Amino acid sequence: MHAHQPRLEQLKLVRLLVSIYRIKAVRVLFPLIIIALVYLEGQHELKGVKLARTLRELRHVPVPDILRMMAAALAAVAVMSAYDFLIRAHFRMKTGVWSTFRYSWIANTFNNLIGFAGLAGVGLRTLLYKKSGVPTAVLTPAIVFLSPLMITGLSLLSWANLFGILPAEELLREHRWLVFAVWGMALYLPFFIMVQRSSLFAKWINRGEGRTPWMTVYASVGSSLLEWLGAGFTFAMIARYMLDGAPFQPMMSLYVIAAIAGILSMAPGGIGAFDLIALLGLQQMGYASERAMAVLVIFRLFYYVVPWLIGLVLAAFEIGQQGIRLLRGTAMETSLNTWQKIWGWPGQYTFLSDLGGWALGKLVLVSGLILLLSAATPELMYRLRFTEELLSLPIMRLSHHLSVVIGFMLVLLSRGISLHVRRAYIGSGILLALGAVFAFAKGFDYEEAIFLLLVAFLLWISRARFYRISAPISRQSLLGWLLLTSFIALSYYLLASYSHRGFFKALQPGEATEWLQQHGHFAYTAAGGLAAAWLLLSLAAVLRPNRRAEALTAPPDMDRLRRYLETESGNALTHMLFTGDKSFYWAQDGKVMLPFARVRDKLVVLGDPLGPKELVNDAISEFRTEADRYGLTVVFYQATPAYLPIYHEQGYRFFKLGEEALVPLDHFTLSGKRNSDLRSVTRRFEREGCTFELAKPPHGVELLQELRSISDEWLRGRAEKGYSLGWFDESYLQLAPLALLRNAEGAVIAFASLAPGYDGGVTVSIDLMRHRLKSPNGTMDFLFISLLEWAKAEGYGRFNLGNAPLSSVGRNPGSLREEKIAHLVFKRGGHWYGFLGLRRYKEKFSPEWEPRYLAYPVSLSLPVLTLDLVRLVSRQPKVRK
């Protein structure tokens, strides 16, 4: 034991560091610290950057140079496929050459733009290769193998920097902290090689086939070196064209240092740290700030944005409904590896539920931003002159303003595209076509027009994806999009004002066209475009046909429910369906019924579906398909163990809510030492003249008024709860017997409503329970004892005492983290609810405990779902007149 103590202590230290890092605030803070450090180091140089001059530099790049730089960037991205061909060969994955290249392009371009530490690539590769039928047993070690090797090439280039092959002495002398960053990156390569050649790596990753061959190690480092050399060559080539023949070696050296800073920041694409270091280095070499910034803008555009847009197009065709089915299953869970768990996944997997729709939505979003960017920046002079000769000035001005409005509308509609809403597809298609026309009319911007028409074409050929009638819109979502579009409008105003002001200064006297001379009032254009977009889309939403989810959540048909229960069995929760706060979905030609209530974007089914069990699986699929047409998710609340295999087949996860107390009446007795306390309570109340009475419906007005006063006294001003709990509603109480406990004077001091089990007289449940605040101790005990004895005499098989929330949840060491937290709440949360006390109270009646579960799709966040369920149960019920 003592021999293993150091290893255990190291493991605890690693776990502590991982736990600290998994705190989101820490993960956000670290990149900010790196970027802030770089900014403080070079804040003087950054003040020299002039955005207007940078835009002028970009506008004057010759087309042949643009094509050469674009070709170099695309080739650099293409060579990154060496990673995927490496794992294809090493793990003998049976995927085609073209498929491997496509998967590589999608994963790498997404990872470049929006991922950090390779995690976006990990998620996408998992989904794409799983879609192609690669077994999990092969895919998991392949992903683990690939994750750490992606920076080995940069580590090798760091050694070249340290040995003077790629010198950067001046930059390192000016910013001393970068020396430590370069050394840290350089030391990663020998560490990587030691791990690859270790026996543990051979056992866990190579699946017992021996140590990683040296040839594979060389190929791994070579693949990474190809990536970083390709990116560095692209950067150096762009610098050469933009900076009048800048030498290759210093540009490559600068790229290596900037890339190391970007990796350390862990920001998407290294944005911030990379750009600042590169800008400082270029200025230190004597290049003007606006030209240096132009190099960075073109590098970001050609190496990151354009390849990502191509990746979006490929993803739009690659993944559809099959991706949803994969995500609902266990494919993503079983392929999780140590790297993903350390970084806090699979929370970041949620956007992959349908990457195709997500990609189309982002293409529409980018289309809107491109229209706004085009409207905010000055057009080329020769195009303006040509357009002024072809069209009148009012048409150009109107086209400009309409481009802004359409840009904002496309930004807003992009969310509907991601959610597969058909009306968003129709509106986006029309707006993209109009946007292309106005892009031509405002300044002959044919590049933007071609891109918009391409996106419209992609939407058209993907039209089968858009099947939803509507999608839920929450207040938080509306507020978020309002803030986003307001920020975009502000950015449009600042960019337009600043860039045009600098553009005018650079023009020769008399060179401005009539359009430029009258082109202004950017604040009005931004505010008017934003307001017009919101107004038009709001009118479209308000005036559209009434085909929203209200048709799904129609008022319940109680007569149909009564007729249904005459032939089909119910359960312990069926009687609560008569409260009127739940809707009914009739599936399988009316043979199966699912009772549910809506909260935000979720349809929460109470208990298990009613009907023949062999039809339930298909009924759930039918209900989920119908709910999905409105962008809603189906959840099952208080599911029983008998139906868990069906929910599991549907791809649901489970969280234990607690246990139901079921008293077997054939074993219930007051005799024996264990029940001495119950006998004492019974004798005491009988001596005091208290009597038990069972009142059958219909109940008189006087009795209900007396019970109302008891209920109000018991509530003490608190609001009633609903959904899974009964409440005081006179029409609801008329549907079942009432158990009454009267004192010696004949006044009711406690009552309880009963709920039949609709199972042929086998089960009866207690529903609503209320008592006078000044009732004697043991009042509810005597009421329960009397009810149990009455039910036993009536021939019932079992009595349901109700649920004990969080009972027996999270007690085992292997329980889920959320269930362990729930167990702490159960033990320590007595001052909130009295979970432990409620369990102990019901234990007095010797019940059998049956677990109840929450079944929910893997795409939902359990904490958010829990808050929604609390909101649903706490929703104040409407009392029927």
TrEMBL record:
It comes from the Bacteria. Catalyzes the transfer of a lysyl group from L-lysyl-tRNA(Lys) to membrane-bound phosphatidylglycerol (PG), which produces lysylphosphatidylglycerol (LPG), a major component of the bacterial membrane with a positive net charge. LPG synthesis contributes to bacterial virulence as it is involved in the resistance mechanism against cationic antimicrobial peptides (CAMP) produces by the host's immune system (defensins, cathelicidins) and by the competing microorganisms. It catalyses: L-lysyl-tRNA(Lys) + a 1,2-diacyl-sn-glycero-3-phospho-(1'-sn-glycerol) = a 1,2-diacyl-sn-glycero-3-phospho-1'-(3'-O-L-lysyl)-sn-glycerol + tRNA(Lys). This is Phosphatidylglycerol lysyltransferase. InterPro entries: Acyl_CoA_acyltransferase, L-PG_synthase/AglD, LPG_synthase_C, PG_lysyltransferase. SUPFAM superfamilies: Acyl-CoA N-acyltransferases (Nat). The gene is mprF. It is an enzyme of class 2 (transferase). It is a multi-pass membrane protein. It comes from Paenibacillus apii.
